[in-house]
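Predict the 3D structure for this chain.
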Amino acid sequence: MFLKSLLLSVVVALMIGAKDRMYDKQYYDNGVLKAEGWRIDQKKSKYWKFYYTNKQVEKEGHFKNDKAEKYWYFYRPNGKLKMEGHFKNGKKNQWWLFYDEEGRVDHKCQLKDGVKNGYCLKYQNKKLKSAEKYSNGKKVNEWFDFRSFKRDNDLSDLK
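Done. Predicted structure below.
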């Protein structure tokens, strides 16, 4: 009797604490898959993938309470990587990498709450061509050679 009572208590506790979880799939009007991922209490959570109408992945990453979180990847309609980086509370943060049409790194920037805040390194033909420094979205300096950049900056800030 005690064992049945204990088991019933555990089941009831689990049911009370259980969240409304479901795997959601959304479709374009033509029936092509548009997005898929987990919902917890009706909010996007965990891992999601979004698709173009040509069935290529458009973007993929994690959500927490309906806001983008952690590391995300964004693609062009041809499947090549467009950009990738970190989200925190729905806003771009930390280092973001941006790619050209050929899939090569075009530039990478440090962001905070969705705006440039830190360094932005620009590349051409796989070589560093310039560096810029931003403070709350405003450019405060720019360098075109590594020697002057190194003289004016602490390289550990690039981490």
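The longest strand covers residues 115-124.
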